[in-house]
Write a structure and sequence with these properties.
The protein is an all-alpha fold. The chain is built from four helices and no strands. Helix 1 runs antiparallel to helix 2 and helix 2 packs across helix 3. The protein starts with 7 loop residues before the first helix and ends with a helix.
Length: 93
């Protein structure tokens, strides 16, 4: 059973990565599958379809799981830094 935990941050970053993944599939200079895997991984706690996709990723590429988890952690940390910066800027104004 999938436990859904809504998070606006994960949704924004997940759908952003999903968009980049689709663009990457079209453009030959970007590896789209990495962004698609990251998007599904980030949205796994938001949507049932993404949780099913994570199970497929785990079954097909078990060696890629640590790299995907690291990219997710880095993306969330980047978003947190940017959010703090923006909040500080608007508090001063």
């Amino acid at each position: 059973m999938v436990v859904l935990r809504p998070s606006l941050t994960r949704k924004l970053l997940g759908f952003g990565a999903l968009f980049l993944g689709v663009i990457g599939l079209i453009l030959p200079i970007m590896p789209g599958w990495i962004f698609l895997a990251l998007a599904v991984w980030m949205l796994r706690d938001q949507y049932v379809w993404a949780a099913r996709g994570v199970e497929k990723i785990r079954a097909r590429w078990p060696q890629a799981i640590p790299a995907i988890e690291e990219r997710e952690r880095r993306a969330l940390a980047w978003y947190a830094r940017r959010t703090r910066t923006m909040r500080r800027m608007f508090r001063r104004a």
